[in-house]
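Hi everyone,

Forwarding the result from last night's run.
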Amino acid sequence: MKKKSHQKKNDSKFKPLQVRGIGRVSNNRPWYKSPILWIFVITILSAFIFRFFVFQNTQQVDYATLIKTIKSQEYQKVQIQGQIVQIFPKNQEDKVIVGTIADPNSFREDLRLVNVDPETANIYFLQESNIDIFTIISVVLFALFIGLFGYSLISARNIASSGPIMGFGDTRAKLFVGEKQDIKFDQVKGIDEAVEEVKEIVNFLQNPEKYIKIGARIPKGVLLVGAPGTGKTLLARAIAGEAGVPFFFTSGSEFEEMLVGTGASRVRDLFNKAKDAAPAIIFIDEIDSIARKRGTVIYSGNTEQTLNQILVEMDGFDKNTNVIVIAATNRPDVLDPAILRPGRFDRRVVLDLPDIKGREEILKVHAANKPLATDIDLHIVAKRTIGFSGADLENMLNEAAIIAVKEGREEITYTDIEEAAIKVTVGPAKKRAKSEKMKKLTAYHEAGHAIAGYFMEEADRVHRISIVSRGYTGGVTMYLPNEDVEELKTEKKFFAELVVLYGGRTAEKLVFGDVSTGASSDIQRATKIARDMVKKYGMSTLGYIDFDDTEDSYVGRHVYSDRTAEQIDQEVRNILTQAQERCENILTAHRDSLDMIAGILIEKEVIEGDEFYQLMEGNARNKGDNEEDNKDK
């Protein structure tokens, strides 16, 4: 009984608390009369009304328009709060321009890329804690209905999947505003075929309706393939300049990071920015660094994630998205097949080395701001620079200008250009003196190359013979191809190159009875040519069979048996032996010409191509006269 009375006493003293608010009532007041409820409802309504009037006086724009508006400086001030940018106009009657950004730090970098200093252009970065009442209410409602655990779980998942952590996931692509690009198609020289092929891309970016109306699909990805220095990046910027669209420039290496998943996050961020700025162009230079064939090399998880994300993003483009991805590489053979299929990088534009006409046009562009001597003919310079890319030609003229300044001249002479061309291809001349023995050895070595080439009909023309040390070489014999562009090479052409390469080593053995290490690079090049003749081009008794195993060599296997490998080695040895014997026969039969050229080299150190041919022809005439005299006697 005591226990029961005690329970009643406690029940009378400690009554359950009645919480005023949503769904709960007090002892003497209905739930709908709760002041907390009405304060909450009035706050929500006030926030919506406030936001409604704010939206009425604002204008939503994309990312590219934000950049252009701020660059124009036609505003009173700019406020950045978190991911929201507000541009207040000078005229109070105009609407406030509002847009969103991915991250304030990357936005600062993009402003600096268009020559806008965020510190001195009335641009204010506010703390994210200064949020408006509408945002506060949204957060409160989210916390009430989802709960703290759900909120933490979803936030963690968003950060892991797509959110940039400490800025690591932000794209490092540089933004160029298209209309300000001063590079146009008429400034891109030497690659006329490639320019014509990409003009339709510019037309699509300017007039997409015409293509969509007829049902045409412009390539989502364009792959620019060419040797280094042929103008891949220049062509991509010219496309952006002609189209007048935002141009996002990045390289494959910028997607790589120590943290796994960072590359994929940067890809997402880059494509999101490009979509917001559409129509736009994304240019990825050296894409082979992140898009190599899977399964042929040791891949990091981050690299493969980056490649997969690029494939997903390009597949995610809908048909009417005006974003074109342009990538550049000089190794298309190592790219993964998945990235080359239709719907991704399905257009390939090849940039070849310029021909003589293209080189002359490129030289005119780069020589426009340089004082050339009146006797310089750029057509002759173009003939001399066979095999030079556009970057090589620009570098050559720059080196020629530097040489002219060092020599105290105000004009660039042909001698400066010739010296610059040799410096670019071989290296600078060394002033270190040679001993007489080394000088003689080098002279006979280079003379052997030149004379072997003189008597081989398919060999290239000798341009210059020099025993001046340059770079890693003690001397050099330079050649000019007989044709401007060699699209195909014959077996006779390859054999002539082998004979010329063995000229130096054969001359050393013929004259001195000994050989030096000076022919190491010649032997290496000759071996590669002979091996390609057998394995790739079918120029041997093994028949027309492809034994090239470049791709499979990554994983250490061959596409042929060990017995076939022995036969390949034997065929390579036979070809090289025949070339060596032919070279030895030539130099033995023309020992007098070898001694003559070597003697002049020891005396003068340099013999130009025209002088070399005059000496050889004169020596042949004298030899013929002597033979006639002997016959008469």
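The domain at 356-425 is CATH 1.10.8.60 (Helicase, Ruva Protein; domain 3).

Cheers,
N.
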